[in-house]
Structure formats: structure tokens, C-alpha cells
Hints:
There is one protein chain. With about 800 residues, this protein is of the alpha+beta class. About 40% of the residues lie in helices and about 15% in strands. It folds into five domains: about 10-100, Roll (SH3 type barrels); about 105-200, no CATH class; about 205-315, no CATH class; about 330-545, Nucleotidyltransferase, domain 5 (2-Layer Sandwich), CATH 3.30.420.10; about 555-590 and about 600-695, no CATH class. It has 28 helices and 20 strands. The strands form six sheets. The protein has a five-stranded antiparallel sheet, with helices on one face. Strands 10-9-6-11-12 form a five-stranded mixed sheet, sandwiched between helices.
Amino acid sequence: MTAIQILKRPDLNGGPPAADDHIDLTLLDVTVDEPYAVWLNDEPAPVTLEFKKLYTNGVLKFVRASTDLEVFIPTDEWETMRSDGRACRIQVVGRGAGAIEDIDPLSLLNPDEPNIKPVEKKKRLLAKKRLDEARVLRFLAMAYDETPAGYGHKGVNDFIKTALEGTNFGWTPSAGALLRALERCGEPGNRSLSAFLSKRGQKHGGQRWPDRVLEYAVEMNATFWAKREERRCGVIAEFYDRLKKENERRQVEVAKLNETRSERGLPHLRAEEISFDLKALPRPSKETLRLWINAGENYWSCKAKYGEERARRRFIGRGRPIKATRALEFVMIDHTRIDAWAVIYDEDGVKVLVERPWLTLALDVYSRMIVGAVITYENPSVYSALLCLRQVVRRKNFLIDRFGHHKGATDGWGKPGTVIVDNGWEFVGMSFQVCCEACGIDVIWAPVKSGEFKSYAERAFGTLNTMLWHRLEEGIPLKPDEMSALNLHPEIKAIHTKEWLFDKMWAAIVTIYHVEPHGEEQIVPAIRWRASLLDKGRWTVDDVTELDKVLGRSDIVLLTAEGVRLHNHRFHDQVITTALLDRLLRFAKKRDQRKGPKSSGTIPLLCTWDSSDCSFIHVWDFVQKKNVRLPNIHPKFSSGLSWKTAAEIMKFRDERNLAFHTDDERYAARAAFSRTLREKIPFIPYRDARKTAAELDRPQLVDGDTVVRVKAPPPIDGSEPTDIPQGLPAREREDDRLRDKAPRRGGAAASRKANKYRARNQARRDAERASVSDPVKKPEKQGGEIAASYAMTTEESLARLAALKKKMGA
Length: 810
């Protein structure tokens, strides 16, 4: 329901001045001081407003009774609100805004309906009885308003008997019931049925119990909802114990009073003579206490006991997922661990390890089309996310070659306009942001701990589980404790590899998921995808090879005359490095340059690299607007080697103290590492073996990496989708693409921790400087002294010149 807008006072808003005199309201069905239940902005329920006046410019003034807040509503909007139910007149004095809809729906249901439980039948009969009684009282009250019969019970009973003759009402009220209804339920000419309902059947059970019992009940309720460890049986036992002690105390007091009266010769106190504060307290049943505890449950009590997440899930309404108007407008990317085991074999075909791989899925929001899906052994990372994104922008030839076009189910590809991801480290880091920014793809981060924001992707994971993974021999259909209880061990039966699971997954997606209806809207992904492409076209990338250069891990590196150093690797080519320095060095900050006269020039650049290949990197030339490839200075060693494997080989080299200088020595170290890796897996702990699995299964490029731009063949009806080429936005930027420093993750706690470590490190450095003695003054060079001691006098100089002249003349 749409809330209204609170306007300012008309004369302060540029309108005519307000008139204080009464305006003719004959055209509007409103009366001064008449209450209304109205929906306002930021209010979870309607509030009570009282009409005060109508201004000459047609604006109605209302005042909120509880706060004196003035609310101004234009006449046209007011009539619209009265028509659509956003403003309801409150006709009964004393009724609040929450009592507008008083008729219980159960009273309209058939209590004799078959197959309903006795409890449900009892509720329906009770609701029907309350409605019938309210109808009888309203009928009699309206008849009494026309022909009053006085206030004597005899005359009122005769009036009731006469009025009900010839009617089908099954209940006859007493004279007192009718007189109370006349007094409490409206006024002559204004007696709505809801007024009679709201005044009947309301019993305040708490008023039957003494104040001390209710006080104990409040404390019991507060104790139960304050801490998670409190149990219902514990707080009920504590309640009964306190009640018992209080009754014992009162019994002792009464005994003392009786003893005193006996000493005076008076009889003991009768039950009615005992004061109220000394009477024994009644003992509520356990069911009553359970209902009292349940009555205390709300958002705040649930939050205090179980935490904010559970309270939000239980009490806060679910938000709607994001909506799209065309294909590729929004694409959701998410990770999950597959509910199936995959086997890793060595080169001899021996089963080395059984592991559960990870699935990275890309789903189009508009059509529910799965436009990308990759399976890796690596935990959620930038590599798997970008590998999936590479598959999204390419035509899936590996599916077309296998299934053909299959009703359009293999046509899911294109350039997404916006990707929706969660707040995992792989998505909030610099690499993913820079890559999407360079490709012209916007990023929306879902709110933390809100799975409903990415509900389509979560539902797709569940569909794949029930449709495929749980039905395999190596599938995991139940929770771990249930699997253990049933003695199910699918990892023992696992024989298929990750590649086999990949093929099975895409077969299920193409032949089942893309051609069957989904969700409440019964969307068929292939049909809706095709319709959107025919209507609005498909966004594509001009050159996917250029896109590959910006898709990858990113970092800021320093270019010098020796090239670029990154993670213990050096990337350098003399010609390329020279050309880069010649073009870019003039734009570097002079204050950041090295001060030595023979020092190299330096400039920070944005670097992109592929996690699966450490043989090269790309640096961004912001002058020519392109990525420049720099090779590894050890091309033979780094060829086809991932960064992680290279780091493990270097660690292995240090542990074994192997020679690592020539290419042959590097090859020997690499071969020794590979042999050790395969030999140690059967004997190392399972946790370490799982980490090693990604090294045995080397990453590969996705299929279709040679495709630049293509069009799908026209369907049978002759219509053809339109491809919309998209250039690389990185080329349009005028800056160096260095990302600004992002705010620290973790909030105030992370800032305090960082400040603490920074202060500790600074104190350590200061202590080291203080512990060093004053530097020893270097002795002056002796060359000056030697030159002075052997300096010739004037006489010696003249004598030597004369001897030289004589020798030359001879």
C-alpha cells in the first residue's frame, strides 16, 4: 500500500494564505474533529489523524492526536486515498486505527467442513457465535434507536421479544446486554457491526491474577528471553519455587496473626477475613505459563535471545529480488560446493584423491538463463569468478557442437551490463573491481547475510542439486549426520572426474533446466531469452582477446629499467621496457623518483595477470590505451606454470637447497617437485591433500577463446537477433586506471587493530634507532695528505723546468 506524502503548510509553500474561518465542506464527506486511520510515510501501521480545516487552495489539514503533528493533504489525493483504502473513517469513539478490520475470517468459514481438525472446528464455531451475537445486538440497537423502550429491564425484555419475532436469529440477549451495547457501541445513526464485535468477547485474563503473580510472570518472561541458555522448563521451575516461598511466608504471617488472636482469646481468622496481601497466591498451570512466555516473543526479545540474524529472518518481511527488463541487464554470479564427489587420477590411472569441487554459476536475472558455469577444485577466488565471466561473454561452441541449438537452450552468452555478487573476498578485492570497470560492467554487491537478494542463483543451486547431483552414485543427498546415521559413503563409490561432472551438468542445464518452466511466473529460460534478444538485441564484446587482457588478477607494480617485479618473478624485455619508459616516464611524479644520478626511472602501473600462467603479465599503457605484454625472464621454466605452483616450487627449492640458476636446474627442481607432490598425497593429512588437489588439476582456458564476434544462425521463422557491439571502456579513460584506496573492511574494530599494530611497529623501529650508537666519523682520505707532503717548492719547480728545457734543446 502506498504511503502519502506529508506536505508543508500551504502558505509556506507558495500557495494562498491560509484562512482561519470555516470553509464549506459540503463537497467533501469530512467533518471537523472527525478521526481517520491514515497510512503515512515510514509508519508500519495506520495512524489516527483528526481533521481540522480546509484551506482555500483545497488542502486539508489534519493533526495527529498523539503528537500534534500537522499533516496537509491535497483534496484530489485525499479522495483517492478514501477510494483505495489508505484513509478510513473511525466511526466509534475510543476505537484505534488498528481495529478497522474486526470481522474474523474464521466466522465466514463452514464449521461442518469435512477433514478439519476438532481444534479448527472449535475456533470456527466460536468465531461464528461472536459474529451472530454481534449481528443480533446491532439489529436490536438500531430498532431501539427508532422506537426507544426506556431503561427498565421488563420493558427492554418485552421490546427484545417483540423485535425478534419472525426473525431467524438463534440467540436472544438479555436486557442488560442490550443496554450495555447501546451505551458502548456507537451512537444513534452510527452503529457499525465492527463496533459490536470489538466490544464483545474481549477478556483480560491477566486481571484475574494477583499483582504478585503477574510480577513473577514478568520476571520469568524477561529471564527467558534475555539469554540463549535459558530454557522454558528452568524458568517455570524458578517461578513455582518463588511462588511456593511466597505462599509459605504468607502462611507463616497468618499463623502469627492467629497465634496472637488466640492469646487474646479471639478465634482464628476466617478465609474472607484474611487481608489480600496475605492470602495464598493461586498457582498457574504449566500451560498458562507457557502461553505467557510465548506472548513475550517479538523482534526485540528474539534478537536478545537468539541474535539479530534469527530475529530478522523470523519477523522481518522478505525483500523482493532485483528485477530486470531485458536479457543481460543483470547477471548474478555466486559460488557453491557441489553435493557430489570427484576423483583425481595420476598419470598411471591410480586414484589419488577424492574431493568435492566448487561450482561458479552466472545466471541472467531476466530470463533465468544460466550463461556461465565452471567447476574447479579451487576455493572461491578471483580466478574462478573471472573464468566464469570469460565463459559468459563467449559463444558456447562446446554446447552447440554437442546438442545443436536445441530450442535456443545453448544460446546463453553475451556481455552483461551489471553483475550482482556477494561480499566475499574474491569480489570486493581490487582485481575483480578493476576488471569489471575496464570491461564496462557495473558491480552491485548484495547486502551482507541477505540470501534473498540473490534468490535466483540460490534457487538454481537447489534445482541442480535435486535434478542432478543428488541422483549420482557419488552424490551427497543428505546432511553429514544423516549420511553417517544411514552408513552412506558415496566418496567410496566415486569414480568420475571433474570433467565428467562438468559434462553432465551442462547436459542437464541444456536439456532440462533451460526448456522447463521455473518459479511462480512459470518462466521458460530459453523462450524468454530468445524473445528478449529479438526485441532488444544482445550486448557483445568487440574483441574478446582484448577482454582477456583485462580479465585477471590485478595489482599496482613499479616499472623500472629492469622491468617489473611481482611475487618473486621478474618480467622484462629490453625493447618493450625501453619503449614503455620513453612514453610513460614523463608523466611520473618527480618527488617519487629515485635520487641517485645513475638510478632508474620509476612509474607505478596497473598490472593484470592470469592465475594459471606465470610466463607473462600485462601492464596498462595509459598513453596508447592498451595492455602491453611483458614476458617472464625465465620463459622455459614459467611456461604453462601457474603462480601457485611456481611459489610451491620455489619453497621446495629452499627446503631442499637445490641449485636454481640455469634453466636445466629449474627444470630439475620442477620435475622433483611434481614427483614429490604425487608421492606425498596418499600419506599427508586430508586437509593438506585437498589443497594439493588444485595443483594436480591444472587450469585450462575455457572453450571458444578464439571467437571474436559471431551471430547465431536464424531460426526457422526467419527472425534474427541483433548483436550490439560494446567497445572496451578502458580505452576511453584518460587516467592511469590506478584504483583509489578503498575503505578498510571490518569497521571500527579493524581500524583499532591496524592502529595498534602500526604503533607497535613504530615503537620497535624507534627502539632500534635508539639502541644504535652514534655513527663513527669516517677518516679523511689520505690522498690529500700525500699530495700535500709531496708538493714541490718554487725552486724545485724552476730547476725541473730548466732541466727539461736543456734536455729538449739537446
